[in-house]
Here is the input.
Amino acid sequence: MVGRKSLDALIRLYALQNVLLALLAFVLAEGERHFVLAGLALLLLKGVLIPRYLFWLLERLGVSHEVESYLSIPLSLLLGGVLVGVGFHVGSSFVLEGARLPEAVPVALGLILLGMLSMVSRKKAITQVLGFLALENGVFLLALAETHGLPLFIELGVALDAFAAVVLAGVLIFRIRTTFNHIDTARMRDLKG
Amino acid sequence: MSALLLLLLAPLFTGSLKWLKARLQNRRGPDPFYDYKNLFKLWRKAWIRPQGSSPLFLLAPVASLLGVGLAAAFLPVLPGVSFAGDFLVLVYLLNLGRFFQVLAALDTGSAFGGQGSYRESLVSVLAEPGTVLALGAAGLASGSLSLAAFTPLSQENALVYTLALVALSLALLAEGARLPVDDPTTHLELTMIHEAQLLDHSGPLLALYELSAGMKLLVYAGLIALLLPFGPLSFPAVLLLAWLALGYLETYGVRLRYLRLPDLMSYNTLSGILAVLGVVLRFRI
Amino acid sequence: MTMLYLLLLLPLLPALHALREHEAGRLASSTAAGALLSLGLSLLAQNQAAGPLRLDGVGLFYLLLTDLLFALVALYARAYFQAGKDRESWRFYAAGNLFLFAMHGAYLAHNLGLLWIFVEGSTLASALLVYHKGGARALEATWKYLMLGSVGIALGLIGVILVYALLGGATLDWQEARALVRGADPAQLKLAFAFLLVGFGTKVGLFPLHAWLPDAHSEAPSPASALLSGTLLNVAFYALLRYAALLGSAGLFDFAAGLLQGFGLASLLAAGLFLFVQRDYKRLLAYSSMEHMGLAVYGLGLGVPWLAMLHTLFHSLAKTAAFLSAGNLLLTYQSKLIARVGAVHQVWPATAGLLVLSLLTLAGLPPFGLFYTEFQALLRSSPLLMGLYLLGLLGAFAGLLWPLSRMVFGEGHGVGLGAPPRARTLVVVPAVLVVLALVLGLFPPVGVVERLAEVLSWKL
Amino acid sequence: MNPLIETALILLGLQSLLALLRPPAIGFLPLSLGGSGLLLLLAGLGAWLTGTWGTPLDASAGFYVALLGALYLGVGPYLREYLVHHEPHRARLEAFLLPLFAAAMVGVLLSPPGYTFLFLWEGMALLGYLLIALEGPNGLVGSRAFFLASRLSGAGLFLALILLVRKEPLVGGLGHLVWAGLVLGFGTKAALFPLHAWLPKAHPVAMSPLSALLSGGMVKLGLYGLYRAQDWVGSPPQWVGWLLVGLGLTGAVYALARGLAEEDYKGVLAYSSVENLNLLLAALGAYFLLPNPLFLLAFFFHQAAHALFKGLLFLGSGTLPVRELSRLGGLHRLLPRTATWSFLAALTAAGLPPLAGFLFEWYLYQGFLAAPQGTGAHSLLVLGVGAVALVGALGAVSYVRLFGLTFLGQPRSPQAGDAHEMGIFGQLGMGVLAGLLLGLSLFPAALLRPLEPPLYPVLPLFLALVGLGGGLVYLLSRKPQRAYDTWDCGFNQPGLMGSALTPEMQPHALGYSEQLLRLFPFVELEAHLSREGMLSPPRVRLEVSDWLLALEARLARGYTAFAHRVQHLQSGSLHLYLLLQFLALLFVLGVVWR
Here is the structure.
């Protein structure tokens, strides 16, 4: 995820991630209804709707599909590796008593850290959104791993919020494109002091 | 009592000083009693009020004389008023006189008056701390802050008193407007300090100024006399000494450059400080 | 009870109204009416519970404050947009009511998860408020706000999840959680609190998480800035209050206290520096918000929730008044630069008076309320913290003073911008707030707030 | 509480309310402000003289109430006439704020240490700031300096008083901390060197009646606090005394020298206030070290005297057409009454007998001269004598310069030829203060009775001076006299063009003190020669460079630079912000795992 140069690939990767997460939810569900529902919502919302929205957005924006970053690909791969390592290293202290799937906790942490890394280092607005979504997924995975899943209405609320945030971000990106003629957030530095 | 004595003596001192200087310079010079006549003559004349001047123009010579005169009243040359801290009142009464004089010098709007005014101000700032410190040290050494109770010079307080005497002597030169601080005989306005302030005063007003200047000199002499060990003879002795010394100094000495004044007067302040420290830290010879 | 649901959904009505009706006057009326109605309703609904909703003392306190400020700002906004010839004020009312809905939700929610959802919702709604009509700068501010806010709140979610897991997945109800949390592993509860503090702290505007705050406040239209500062910051602070109490119940308050005091003082000290070199008066006010939220968090760190609540109350009143006065300045001078504003006391005396009074309130001077709360906070601090606190206050004061003097009493060079708008509302609304701040400052409602804050008490 | 004081406070409150009417009711000011002043004077004097407020320390509050009362009594009528010349909008605000300010000052004196005290203390600062700020652009720097210093003072007091209010035992360093807070808090207000910098910025720009209240009254509250704190905390540690004596004497000399480099009439007065306050602080510090009643006498007596003469001088300054000394001159002709009042005040300020200013120095000298009776290092206090003497001499010069350049000589600018005397109310206000000052000078025992003062024969000296002086003046004025031009080296011959003297030939404000200032290394005058054209005469411009102000400016620049550096955190880069957020998280996690 941190190593790819193409935005399309990133979005596809993100969709795949969500499908996997949904599958995990189904596996863990053990027939509990709300897990199944949550998984379905996830699959629908994040696995299908959001990626499609992003592709649509990318197309309409008419900007290059290239990922721009403060870091070179090797460096960012290296940093990503380090962060995943850190995630695994400290993961144990995150594993709570009675965690459902302790093995997934470090993975979740790694995902969160990678999400943050891409938000800090990627320049294009849309890549930052992707970073945020990865982070969000990490949080979701953490929830799956640590608990029996959040209560359903909370889960749905969270998903709704995330979706609304992405839609809003999309609208904003579109406006950014028309206003600035680019979507490079590193160049939006008028407000300072 | 002392005030009257000094009032009577002052013209004699200044007048005879002029005579002495003339003699030293191989001139015949005026009569030693000339200043009495001169004052009398001036007093009878009319006086000029410069245009636009304020009431201070008239008040200043009066206040100047009164300040010095009342200060002299506190001098225990002859028995008079005495209380703890009287030497401070004495010094500040002298200041009172000067305050008016310096102010009146600004009154006429003359260039020289102003010059004299700030020059005199500088002199006062330079001389005053030394004077007060010296007198304070003497008071401390005597165990009393009343002039009448000052003990005379002795083995015990010799160092402190010597320092105090140095300070007071320098103060006498400065405050009395004598060489090397000021030249009382100059006729060039640009070099004047004391005289520049009197340029516009004439007749009786000038007489008052002259009289008070002479008295001021004697007041300092009286202060010096307090520290000397000759009993009632101290004051005459100091007068004689001062008379001779001034005559000599003003004949063979030259006036110090005005801007070098602080250098000279720093000895005054330093002696004062050392004198006080000498009492506190019990300096002995 | 249906009343709580009614209260929750009430703001959606004017929001829908705003989508259909674009006339500012009617919108202002319906919005203000909605807010005032909720104000009354919430007084009736105290201590009621329904599902995940419950209105306890703390919630009521903030709900009342929010509704009151919202109603007043709605009235002001009408005159403001009219004077600014802004025909799209409906956007403000629509987003504003949506925002109010989220706020209602947050204050009514008794479920920590629900609380999180509504706080996140308030971020999204307020992003719309900031964006308003767009433009490069507003866009930039909105984007930054959205990104930082979302990441922050996502970190907060991690905290919520950890808390939930620590409770054994049994409940997220705050009251029940406080009873259960005693059994939780302290080390892991601390971990959860770390995420919660950074997450909600971002929205409170604590240093160094504050970066979005001045951008958003300065670029939003002034009534929206007033809402952000006066109400939005409170909602995140409210969440911190709840979690601090939760930690208190677990006997870990000392740990939380250290962090809260540290972040509070850091915000105070940093804000002082930012204020000192600020050239834009709206950003100035924003940094002042950062300062005061820092002080409130510090007050919470002292273990005195009522004091922190009182502080936020006075801050909200004064800051709202200040932002509204700043709106008047913007209408008159057409510039946000301090250097462009001058001689306000001659150009528009009423606004000058409001500006002076509200800024002096914010500077913590008597007879206004913040003087009282700052005194109380100092009374409870150790000498070292007292010193830092006073240093911070001085720094912040020094930062506020020059702009205030400069704008109100300084020279008004080349500001021939014609007469300022003369709509009464522009002055009356902030005046009401200032008077309220004054009265409450003279007679601080300590007893009432203390009683309302009782639910938070963990020292039994 | 005393019913007289209550009535006075009610009067002040009513006046504030009345001022809000349209048009503002400033006509009542003599009655309300002046009347409250009278009540306060009576009540305060009663308490001070009879000690009815309990312990001697307690009665000191009465002294200060009376001091404020005396000022209000003079300022009340004066203000009424002064405000008529302001535009109604501004006059209303001033008439509203000033009585509140006056009431706050009294309130401070009536409050025990604690919340109310701080409330009123900071409230006083706020009102003072607003009153100065109403001066508009000219008052910007001054009002800011005033308010900043007031808040600094408030911070010190917060620290001290809160530690006191907590009623914890002041063990360990806490007692020292309390005193540090008190010295910072009250010292700043009382212009303790080097915390005095605000005063010469603020007092000159305030309107004259306000300057009178600030310099005469408000700053005294700092002295009150330091004195009264003994009552609250117990006797201070040694270092407080040494600090006050050391800084006080240094500050007094500094302020006088600096005042000589000041061109602004009110600026000179402000520096003179700094001088007097520092000398008072030195007296108090010396009292802390050696509880000699002479220091206490000096301390109390001079506060009263300073309040009156400085109040009078500031009121007088309200009549001047311009404030720069280098543009004034000869005003005794246009403003004879103001000149008279100011002359009386200047004589007092110069510390000349038999007026009140001298008695202060008299006590102070004797107190310092008594120091060798103390032990060890205390006996070194005797060196204070030298400092006081220097201050005395410089003070006299400073007032000669001030009065002489303003009221005597020839006008130095056209504006100085166009001044108008105050009317009946203005004269009444100044007259009241002058009368009180004269009374205080001649009957010091009436005020100092509770302290059983030693005195020099004040009244006989006065009578001798007035009697003999009057006689001499009478004789002289009966002598023949004629008016003539001032001596100009004989250039004024018949047929020539008249007097060769021009106003420019008089000493310039800075030229007057230029040579004196050479004695003091911390104030420098730099002369800049400039010539407009080849043929025009060169003009000399003197620039004052002040070491302390330069240091202050450098500190301010350093702080600004630091703030700018911190501002880089808000660089506009979203990525940096996100990184900061991440680092903050790591930091908190670090705290958790520590």
About this structure: Chain B touches chain D through 76 residues (CB under 8 Å).
